[in-house]
Amino acid sequence: MHRITQGRVIAKKAAGFLNAGFHAVAVSRRIVISDFGRKLTIGAMLWLMMISLAHTWATGNTQAQIEQAVRKLLTDTRYEYIVALNQTMTGAPERYDSLRVEPVGDALPFGNCWVRVFFYTDNAVVYTATLNAQVSWYQEMFVSTRAIPRGEPLTPDLFTVLRREVTSTADPAITSLDEIDGQEAARTIPQGKALTFSMVKPEEVIKRGDQVTIFYQSGNLQITASGEAREAGARGEVIKIKNLATNRIISAEVQDEQTVKVIR
Fold first, then answer.
1. Which residues make Cβ contacts (< 8 Å) with residue 1, sequence separation at least 6?
2. Which residue, of 71, 119, 239, 264, has the fewest CB within 10 Å?
């Protein structure tokens, strides 16, 4: 800001000199500003001043520029991102045209991470730096309102929606009611826990020991028989079934709560 204010003062004085049409000789430095060369000389001064100001504006708050550049790498609109450098930027050039940031490694910036910064002047890299940053991701998540035992079917009334920090990109949070439809708790979920995909599994519509109807089809031939589930299973899963007529154990795909289909 000081450089910009100083530049404006210089520009104002230069304009005043032009209006006055002055003719000066600076003997001490042997610099002569004549009527003939005045416009050219002061024009060059203004041009150099504007170049300096342009660099100043580009530099600005370097740390803020870097943090903003990191945010631009993160484009998934499901999240809100907060970026903070963990160290003070030192050694960067005082003047540069632009900067570019890229993550160190293949992963997007997340948690405590490192980024590489490139400073450009006249389209050429003039300085690089590797910096440590804290990049926090936030998202609205389903949070349990009570403890949910393992195996309990998941319903919307078991959760409230809260903004929470993402702690792992490997186990993303569940954020849609469609994602819990037909699901149950894969393990006990404590009260106040944000729901992630590792905590759920397809709801087991058939339990071990349930009496089921075995359905078999081959072309126009259809056969049904009574069976007993030897395993629990969700829709689409293949489980072991005991055929009560033959006492044989067969594999069958769960169709619904009462029916399994023999697979060939």
1. none
2. 264
Of 225, 231, 236, 238, give the one whose Cα is nearest residue 264: 238
3-state SS track over the chain: CHHHHHHHHHHHHHHHHHHHCCCEEECCCCEEECCCCHHHHHHHHHHHHHHHHHHHHHHCCHHHHHHHHHHHCCCCCCCEEEEEECCCCCCCCCCCCEEEEEECCCCCCCEEEEEEEEEEECCEEEEEEEEEEEEEEEEEEEEECCCECCCCECCHHHEEEEEEECCCCCCCECCCHHHCCCEEECCCECCCCECEHHHEEECEEECCCCEEEEEEEECCEEEEEEEEECCCEECCCEEEEEECCCCCEEEEEECCCCEEEECC
Residues 6+ apart with CB under 8 A from 224: 213, 214, 215, 216
Closest among 129, 140, 144 to 164, alpha carbons compared: 140
Q: How far apart, in whole angstroms, are the C-alpha atoms of residue 186 and residue 259?
A: 23
Give the mean model confidence (pLDDT) for residues 40-53: 47
pLDDT at position 42: 52
Radius of gyration (Cα) for the chain, nearest Å?
36
Relative to beta strand 249-254, strand 31-33 is: unpaired
Q: How confident is the model at residue 32 (pLDDT cuts 50, 70, 90)?
A: very low
Q: Are 117 and 64 in contact (CB under 8 A)?
A: no
> Hey, what amino acid is at 93?
P
**Paired tokens of 112:** 């405590």
